[in-house]
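[job 4471] stage=fold_predict status=RUNNING
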Amino acid sequence: MNNNSNLQPQESTHRWKLALIITILSIVGIAVIAGLVIALAADRAVASQTVLTAVLPLLAAWVSTVLAYYYSSESIEAATQSVKDLMSPEEKLKTILVADKMIKFHEMVYFTYTDELKVQEMLDKLKASDKGYRFPFLGDKKQPKFMLHKSAVDEALVERSRAGDDITKLTLKDLFEKVVGLKGLAEGSFGVVAENATLADAKAEMRRIKDAQDVFVTDNGRKDGAVIGWITNRIVEQSSQVEQSSQVEQSSRV
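[job 4471] inference complete, writing structure tokens
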């Protein structure tokens, strides 16, 4: 879990406690010293006047400084928050790196294409992982190869079932050969960006490609590069609405 969202409140609480402790100790210390000076003085009346003359301006200046600091800090924080609130979704996305929001490679459930890969095996693996409804396929060098959504696979299975096929025995190769447009969709419905790209870049890449709802992050920013992460349209949508520091849960990212 990302704890960055708790950092600012914690720092504010610590500053407040530190200020309170220092203020109390200082006041007590000044009071003790002033009392000792008056008590030990030969002429207590003169000593009292001298202490009063020295201490009152000190306390006044101190209180004014503390109040000015805290009120100015709150004003700056309020102004900063107002600016953030006024940012458009597109502007927010420009401030967020894909590296900060992507599903990292080690978190991905991905597939390797073979002619023998059965669709039912794909469905079982995805269900067991409990990580969304998308099938990312990578090549032998971890380069992006295909992207399929479960909805498209389900539609293809329904079509073949109506045609009389035993869907429990169908391979992905069978679907590619028998369902018009499925292979083209798998090959061309995803984009690619580099690790230093922003979520705005990822969104632009999705818009550039018809039906794209996914962007792979590769080590060279190209399709022949190794995948190091994955951005979905849900990550982009949620990140445009929430603070950068909030955690996007795995179940809602895909």
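[job 4471] summary: The radius of gyration is 32 Å.
[job 4471] exit 0
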